[in-house]
Amino acid sequence: MEEKMRHLEMIQNVISRMASNSFFLKGWTVTLVVGLLAFANIEDMNANFMFLALIPALFFWVLDSYFIHQERLYVKLYEHVAALKNNQIDFSLKASHFEKETGGMVSAFLSCTLVLFYFPTLIVVAVAIGAYR
User: Under the phi-then-psi rule, with left for phi > 0, alpha for psi from -120 to 50, and beta for the rest, what region is 104?
Assistant: First the structure.
C-alpha cells in the first residue's frame, strides 16, 4: 500500500505542476495584453501596434491548452493507478495511453475554463483596436 501511495503522490505532483503552469499563463496573458494595449495608446504610436496584443493571447491559449490536456491525462493515470492492486504498481508516469479518453488538445482548447478566459481577452483586444482606429 505504501508503494501505491508514493506513486499516487508522484502523479499528484505532476498534476499540481500542470495546474500551476496554467495559472501562471493566465497571469502572463493579462500582464502582456494590458501592457501592450497601454503602450499602444501612446499618441505617437501606430494603431497597428495593438495587433501585437493578439499574439500572446493566442499563443498562451494554445500553450494553456497543452497544460490542461496534460493535466487531464495525468488525472486519468491517477484514477487508473488508484484502481490497481498493490502488486501491479510499476511507478510509470506515462499517461499518453489515455489520449482517447481525454478528448485531445482540441477538447482542452475549447474547454469552458479556457474559452471563458481567453475569448473575452481577445474580444477586449478587438474592441480596443476598433475604438482606436
Answer: left
State whether residue 93 is helix, strand or coil.
coil
- What's the length of the chain? 133
Structural domain range at position 87: 2-132
* Surface-to-core class of residue 94, CB atoms within 10 Å of its CB (0-12 exposed, 13-18 middle, 19+ buried): exposed
Asked if 40 contacts 53 with a C-beta cutoff of 8 angstroms, the reply is yes
Contact 73, 96 (CB under 8 A): yes
pLDDT of 133 above 70 = no
Domain tally for the chain?
A: 1
What is the model's pTM?
A: 0.86
Which three three-digit cell numbers place residue 108?
A: 482542452
